[in-house]
C-alpha cells in the first residue's frame, strides 16, 4: 500500500506497509526492556495509545522515541507498518520509517473504536491457502 496520502486509523488492518498517518498520542505506557532479535541487545520499548477521529490503535515506541514524545502530541508517521502481537493490532514506525511532531490540532479521538482491542486470529503462512512462495510442486515418480 504505497501512498503519499494520509490514512485514517479505521483503515488499518494487519500486515500493511508504507503507511502515512497523522495521530494524536493519548498516553504512553511504562517502558520495559526487551531482547532485540537482530543483535541480542537489551532495548527499551513502550506502548502508546494513538488515534484520530475515526479510531485508535497501540503504537510501539522504541528507545529515544519514548523520550521524544508525550501525551497530547500530534505526530506524523511516514512509512509505518502494522502487525499482530498476540492477536492484537499494532502500529509501528520501523527502521525505515519516520515519526515527527507536527503543528496540527486533533481535538477528538475516537477511543471507542480501539483497533488493538479486537482480537485477530493469525494463520501461519504454511497453513494458509495463499502461500507466499507459491504452490508446492508435486514430486515426479
Task: Provide keyphrases for this structure.
single chain; 141 residues; mainly beta; OB fold (Dihydrolipoamide Acetyltransferase, E2P); five-stranded mixed barrel; 4% helix
Task: Report on this structure.
With 141 residues, this protein is mainly beta. It has a single domain (9-117), classed as OB fold (Dihydrolipoamide Acetyltransferase, E2P). The chain contains one helix and seven strands; from the N terminus they run ββββαβββ. It has one helix spanning 64-68; strands at 19-28, 32-35, 42-52, 55-62, 74-85, 88-92, 98-101. The model has no long low-confidence stretch (mean pLDDT 87).
Helix- and strand-based class? mainly beta
CATH level-two architecture = Beta Barrel
Shape: globular
Assembly status: single chain
Number of domain modules: 1
* Gyration radius from CA atoms, angstroms: 17 Å
Query: What is the count of DSSP helices, taking H or I runs of 4+ residues?
Result: 1
CATH structural class: Mainly Beta
| Beta-strand share of residues | 35-45%
Total number of beta strands: 7
CATH superfamily: Nucleic acid-binding proteins
Biggest sheet: strands side by side, in what order? 1-3-4-6-5
Low-confidence stretches: none
Mean pLDDT: 87
Largest sheet: 5 strands, mixed, barrel
How far apart, in Å, are the first and last alpha carbons?
42 Å
Question: Could you state the order of secondary-structure elements as H and E?
Answer: EEEEHEEE
Helix content: under 10%
CATH topology: OB fold (Dihydrolipoamide Acetyltransferase, E2P)
Amino acid at each position: 500500500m504505497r501512498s503519499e496520502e494520509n490514512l485514517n486509523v479505521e483503515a488499518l488492518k494487519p500486515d500493511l506497509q508504507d503507511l502515512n498517518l497523522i495521530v494524536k498520542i493519548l498516553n504512553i505506557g511504562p517502558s520495559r526492556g526487551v531482547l532485540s532479535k537482530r543483535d541480542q541487545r537489551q532495548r527499551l520499548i513502550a506502548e502508546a495509545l494513538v488515534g484520530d477521529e475515526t479510531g485508535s490503535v497501540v503504537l510501539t515506541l522504541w528507545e529515544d522515541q519514548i523520550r521524544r514524545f508525550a501525551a497530547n502530541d500530534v505526530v506524523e508517521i511516514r512509512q509505518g507498518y502494522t502487525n499482530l502481537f498476540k492477536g492484537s493490532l499494532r502500529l509501528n514506525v520501523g527502521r525505515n520509517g519516520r515519526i515527527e511532531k507536527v503543528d496540527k490540532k486533533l481535538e477528538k479521538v475516537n477511543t471507542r473504536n480501539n483497533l488493538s482491542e479486537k482480537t485477530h486470529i493469525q494463520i501461519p503462512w504454511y497453513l494458509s491457502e495463499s502461500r507466499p512462495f507459491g504452490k508446492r510442486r508435486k514430486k515426479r515418480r
